[in-house]
C-alpha cells in the first residue's frame, strides 16, 4: 500500500500522525510498518533488520543517541572522539534569524536546522547573487517557528531531545571543484563492525537518489532498495576507503546499531551525520532475503 498516493499532501500526513500521538508505540509501529511494507512485523520472534529497528525505537535508550541526533551536539561528540578534522567548517550558529548577517555570508553555503532529519530543513545556496535576503530569512523563520517535536511521528525516541532548535550555516563542500558530484557513503554498523554500505549518487534535494548497496570491502552487491533508484554506474572505491572504515567503526562503537554517513570529496573525508533508524525501518529490498541477512547482525535492540 502506497499511503503517499492516498494522502498526497506531506504536511497533512504529518498532522494526521501527530493527532495519533496517543496511540501506544507498539500499535502505531505495527500499523505504520504494515502500511509501508505490506506485511505485519513479527515482534515476538524478529528476524528482519526492519523488524528489529522497530523494537530498537521502543526499547533501546542511550543518552548519547540524543546528542548524536542534534546536528551541533553530534559535532561535539565527533570532536571528543578525536575526529574534529573531519567536520565540515561552520560559518555561524544562530538562535534567531535577525542574528544572521546576510551580507557577510559567502557566495556559496548550506543552511540547516539543528534538528532536521531526512534531508528536511536543508537549504543549499550555490550563488548568493541569485538569492533574495528577504526570501532566505523568511524560510529560516519558518523553520525556527515550526513546533518542536514532543513525540516523534515514527516513534523515533532519539529525536525527542531537549536541545533548542537553532540555525547553523556550513561551508559548501566541493565548491572549489567545477561540477562536483557529492557522493555519500552510509556505513551500517553494529557494535563497531561494518555490515554493509549504501553508496549514494545523483543526489538532489526533494528527489529520489541513486542508491547502490556494497559489502564492507566496497564490492557492489546485487541488492536494491525498492524506494530508491538503482545506481546505474557503481561508485569507485575511494583511495582512502580504509580511513573511512576506521572512522565509521570508531564512531559506532557502543551502539548496537548506527548508520555513519561520510562524504569523500577529492580525497578529503567529511563527517555527515549519525542515523539510528535508517528509513525508520519502513523500506523493502530486492531480494527480500537481504532484510534477513542484515537482521543477523542486529543482536541487541
TrEMBL record:
A Pfam family hit: ATPgrasp_TupA
Protein origin, superkingdom: Bacteria
Protein name from the UniProt record: Carbonic anhydrase
Amino acid at each position: 500500500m502506497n499511503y503517499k498516493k492516498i494522502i498526497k499532501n506531506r504536511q497533512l500526513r504529518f498532522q494526521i500522525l501527530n493527532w495519533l500521538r496517543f496511540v501506544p508505540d507498539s500499535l502505531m509501529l505495527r500499523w505504520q510498518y504494515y502500511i509501508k511494507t505490506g506485511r505485519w512485523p513479527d515482534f515476538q520472534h524478529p528476524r528482519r533488520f526492519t523488524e528489529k529497528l522497530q523494537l530498537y525505537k521502543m526499547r533501546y535508550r542511550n543518552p548519547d543517541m540524543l546528542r548524536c541526533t542534534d546536528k551541533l551536539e553530534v559535532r561535539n561528540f565527533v570532536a571528543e572522539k578525536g575526529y574534529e578534522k573531519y567536520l565540515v567548517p561552520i560559518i555561524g550558529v544562530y538562535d534567531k534569524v535577525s542574528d544572521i548577517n546576510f551580507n557577510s555570508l559567502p557566495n556559496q553555503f548550506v543552511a540547516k536546522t539543528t534538528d532536521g532529519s531526512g534531508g528536511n530543513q536543508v537549504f543549499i545556496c550555490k550563488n548568493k547573487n541569485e538569492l533574495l535576503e528577504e526570501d532566505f530569512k523568511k524560510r529560516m523563520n519558518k523553520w525556527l517557528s515550526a513546533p518542536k517535536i514532543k513525540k516523534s511521528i515514527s516513534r523515533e525516541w532519539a529525536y525527542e531531545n531537549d536541545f533548542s532548535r537553532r540555525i547553523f550555516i556550513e561551508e559548501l563542500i566541493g565548491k572549489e571543484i567545477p561540477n562536483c558530484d557529492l557522493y555519500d557513503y552510509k556505513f551500517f554498523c553494529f557494535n563497531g563492525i561494518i555490515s554493509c554500505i549504501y553508496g549514494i549518487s545523483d543526489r538532489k534535494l526533494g528527489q529520489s537518489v541513486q542508491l547502490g548497496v556494497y559489502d564492507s570491502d566496497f564490492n557492489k552487491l546485487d541488492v536494491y532498495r525498492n524506494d530508491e533508484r538503482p545506481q546505474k554506474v557503481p561508485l569507485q572505491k575511494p583511495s582512502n576507503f580504509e580511513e573511512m572504515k576506521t572512522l565509521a567503526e570508531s564512531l559506532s562503537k557502543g551502539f548496537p546499531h548506527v548508520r555513519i554517513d561520510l562524504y569523500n570529496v577529492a580525497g578529503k573525508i567529511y563527517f555527515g551525520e549519525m542515523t539510528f533508524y535508517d528509513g525508520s525501518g519502513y523500506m523493502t529490498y530486492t531480494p527480500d532475503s537481504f532484510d534477513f541477512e542484515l537482521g543477523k547482525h542486529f543482536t541487541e535492540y
